[in-house]
Amino acid sequence: MEIIRKSTRSILKRDFKKNWFAYMLAIPVLAWFLIFCYGPMWGILIAFKDYKPLLGFSESHWVGFKHFIDFFEGPYFWRVVKNTLLLNVWGIVFGFTAPIILALLLNEIRDGLFKKTVQTLTYMPHFISIVVVCGMIHIFTADEGVVTQLLQFITGKDYSSLLGYSSFFRSIYTFSGIWQNVGWECIIYLAAMSAIDSTLYEAGEMDGIGRFGKMWHITLPQIRPVIVILFIFAVGGLMASGYEKIILLYTPMTYDTADVIASYVYRRGLRESSLSFSTAVGLFSAIVNFALLWATNKIAKRNSDVSLW
Amino acid sequence: MIRRRSIGNLTFDVVIYILLILLTVACFYPILHILLASFSNPSKLVAHSGVLFKPLGFTLNGYKLIFRDDSLLVGYMNTFLYVGLGTVINMVLTIMGAFVLSRRDLYFKNHFMIVITITMFFGGGLIPWFLLMKDIHLYNNLWAMVLPTALNTWNMIILRSGFQSIPVELEEAAIIDGASQAKLLTRVIIPLSKATLAVIFLYYLVGNWNSWFNAMVLLKDRDMFPLQLLLKEILVANDTSASTMGSAGGVVIDSASSATAYRELVKYCTIVVSTLPILIVYPFLQKYFVKGVYVGSIKG
């Protein structure tokens, strides 16, 4: 025992002598993580207290699971949980598949200039800030906006500003998200496709499968590991994603489809100063989120051998 | 047989080209629309509905209004300050962290990695974070805009992968030649990782330029607001604060009759002025971004 301790100490001593520069660099980095990432974790305790700013963190009274029960029994529990899940299901059905489809299409293009032009123009929106994107959505879905006009032309009905209808919120949110990110997100898939062994396609040609067949039977299965990893990440971010955009787009009129857990946390916590309640809601969301990530990872591991850990 | 094949091939290509062209137009048209509208005559613009193919009339009055107004200029200056200082700190901390994580022989290497990875899955959430910021006085001052976002874990891991892709032999050779670790970092590792450094530099730059949420939550004084937060008031008048009622985010309009029309025009012009710099620059940087996404996806 004594010998082991001694040798560990001498290893550390030698390591520190050799790597003292790295240790010095590590100090500010670790300090940042401890303060800005671990610091807030400590603050989660106020979910179990009745936090009063005047009393402070340690003096506020413990209330156990009161805030959680208030949330579960409150009138908005199902609304925010349902909206969060639905917006994310839409995001996965449309938003997750769109870049894969774009990558499959672009992969068929041999003309370099055309391909580059399409790519450059489709991922331009990715660099526009979320504030400006939401401003553009406001402009295009206003009474006389292009999207509103288009919708009136197609359906023959008269619409005013589309952001005022709660029935349109999910479509606006999801499809503007695709508009902004489809070009950018397809880069990863294109990179994965460029690494596919060309002999596979030659073999496919021998078997007489057409272009679509190659796409479906060769390209898609070959990029499956990338798809699975990104899918796990997408599910992992399910409860937390996109609140900035929602805060910028929703109005009390559309709360019944637009209000998600994260926007509810923001509104109740920072706007209405229900700090403990809001922290409890946030903690609930984080736990569900991690459970989903864990479950997806497990399922992916079992079915496709691809996983995060 | 060959002929039928090639006709099938041709239709396949035609369908793909048509789909891609439609999608490209759908992605690019909104940007074009904003640009065209920003030069249009405001009263014609308000009367117009639907697609624009060219500016309606021509005027630079919208841009004149913006640049005559102080609040947006102040916003610009604030943004430059936050982006400049923030990105420098981002780069320094990220290089330091990536260097530490890339040391193969460091005794605590794995412990560092665990400390960092945990934060990618667990966090305190918005409210505890906000209360902490207030407690440590990162509220309504310059550091509130810089320190909470000083590091991005994902970027640090990308850079670590970049550092690790440098051949070990090269580092050993430098050590044998008598280089200290500091010299190893500044003379060997950093110069050899220029491409990855460029990528994360651009990520940070764009991220800092576009960020607004921390500013909304942590800043109180209007004269400290970055451009994006002013844009929020002009473009997304969700909360009807007094400043957005009679003017467009501080841009005072003289004649009441055309006020509404000008308020619309100012929206288009501010979008152009705040977005065009990045949109013009990025096609030249495209290859770096692509490389960054790729490195991040295979090594992350």
From TrEMBL, chain A:
Its main location: membrane. Keywords: Cell membrane, Membrane, Transmembrane, Transmembrane helix, Transport. It is a multi-pass membrane protein. It comes from the Bacteria. The chain crosses the membrane at residues 21-48, 85-106, 118-140, 223-243, 275-295. GO terms for cellular component: plasma membrane. GO terms for biological process: transmembrane transport. Residues 81-296 form the ABC transmembrane type-1 domain. It is found in: Cell membrane. CDD domains: TM_PBP2. Belongs to the binding-protein-dependent transport system permease family. This is Sugar ABC transporter permease.
TrEMBL record, chain B:
It comes from the Bacteria. It is a multi-pass membrane protein. Keywords: Cell membrane, Membrane, Transmembrane, Transmembrane helix, Transport. It is found in: Cell membrane. It holds the Pfam family BPD_transp_1. Residues 76-277 form the ABC transmembrane type-1 domain. Its main location: membrane. One of its GO terms (cellular component) is plasma membrane. PROSITE patterns: ABC_TM1 (PS50928), PROKAR_LIPOPROTEIN (PS51257). The chain crosses the membrane at residues 12-36, 80-100, 112-131, 143-163, 184-206, 265-285. GO terms for biological process: transmembrane transport. InterPro entries: MetI-like (IPR000515), MetI-like_sf (IPR035906). Belongs to the binding-protein-dependent transport system permease family. This is Carbohydrate ABC transporter permease. It comes from Paenibacillus rhizovicinus.
